[in-house]
Amino acid sequence: MNQIFLASDGSPNALNATKEVIKLGAGFSEMQVTVITVIDTSEIKSAALDLKLDKDLLRLKHLKKIENTLGLLREADISHQVEILQGDPAERISQYISEHPADMLVLGSRGLNTIQEIVLGSVSHKLIKQADCPVLVVKR
Question: What highest taxon heads this organism's lineage (predicted)?
Fold first, then answer.
């Protein structure tokens, strides 16, 4: 296993997924991790506000969100890079995977109940269906 994609939003569940990647890395010395984080444009309420936001500032804020994820990978001496995407998280991650082959995608589960998942959908559920590689969803 050489190329692992780790989807991270900086949440506690994403940190659990990071810890799982570190466990996987113990058996694969050549493993390269790409941390994928997505600026969810649905969170930006106004097009006018979107125009005013500085893209570099958004990138810095997102890097700050995943700082703990990156710190854990550095401590474990796992080679990694970061890809910051913009748009719907499930769609953008799925698109990235189709354009950049990987051995596995690892992500945390948000822990939605059945009703929430039906109404909101979940990124992990969508990626299980859409991703062009095996998907490991790490529960709490």
Answer: Bacteria
DSSP element (H, E) containing 104: strand 104-108
CATH class of 3-138: alpha beta
The single-letter DSSP state of residue 84 is E
Give the closest residue to 21 by CA, choosing from 122, 104, 98.
Answer: 104
pLDDT digits (tens, 9 = 90+) for 64-100: 999 999 999 999 999 999 999 988 889 999 999 999 9
Place of tokens 């694969």: 28
| Measured distance CA(131)–CA(126) in Å, rounded | 8
Q: Which among 71, 73, 63, 3 is positioned nearest to 38, based on CA atoms?
A: 63
Q: Please give the structure tokens belonging to residue 121.
A: 């959908």
